[in-house]
Design a protein that fits this description.
By secondary structure, the protein is of the alpha/beta class. It is built from 6 helices and 7 strands. α3 packs across α4.
């Protein structure tokens, strides 16, 4: 397999790539995210493209993976919370209801002056059990929600409040590795 670069410093994405046996380097994108799209899957793909493209500028050859996860509810994106009160507001709106998580993925394959791109997304529906204000604040006090879209991590303590999911679990974690593998396996040597 060619050299793989992950354009993210997300511990969850690193763990998922390692889980499927990939060896990779990390070159996190640091540029400003610019959203020009409106539909959630388009936004997730657009942001994943920006991250992959930024990392690709520093690499001559290899496979660059960019990803972005978007929590979507009531026709609006939910980003990472600004502070604890913002996290409480987000979790309050999620509890007892369904929402959708979109993860956009961009794979850029650079060889010499040629770049091939694959851009896709996966969507997963998530239902959260009802939560009391005390449960919400106890979760926020763990610190876990502060760096996550929608203010929760399905793979952490918030798992206690996940009623059901429909779709790929890893999409919610932050990287649909099975769909990614279907792209990457074309480039095995």
């Amino acid at each position: 397999m060619r050299k793989i670069i992950l354009a993210s410093n997300s511990p969850r994405r690193k763990e998922l790539l390692s889980q499927i046996g990939l060896r990779f380097q990390v070159k996190p994108a640091a540029g400003e995210e610019i959203i020009t799209k409106e539909m959630p899957w388009e936004i997730a793909e657009e942001l994943s493209w920006q991250k992959a493209r930024e990392a690709a500028e520093t690499v001559e050859e290899g496979i660059i993976i960019g990803a972005d996860t978007l929590v979507w509810q009531d026709g609006k994106p939910m980003g990472k919370p600004k502070d604890q009160e913002d996290a409480a507001r987000m979790i309050q709106s999620l509890q007892g209801r369904d929402h959708f998580v979109y993860t956009g993925v961009t794979v850029l394959v650079k060889e010499g002056d040629q770049t091939e791109s694959h851009v896709f997304y996966r969507k997963t529906r998530v239902r959260v059990f009802p939560m009391t204000d005390e449960e919400i604040w106890d979760y926020i006090k763990t610190g876990e929600p502060m760096d996550k879209a929608g203010a929760y991590g399905i793979q952490g303590a918030f798992a206690a409040w996940i009623d059901e999911i429909e779709g790929d679990y890893n999409t919610v974690v932050g990287l649909p590795v099975s769909a990614l593998w279907q792209v990457l396996k074309k480039y095995q040597e």
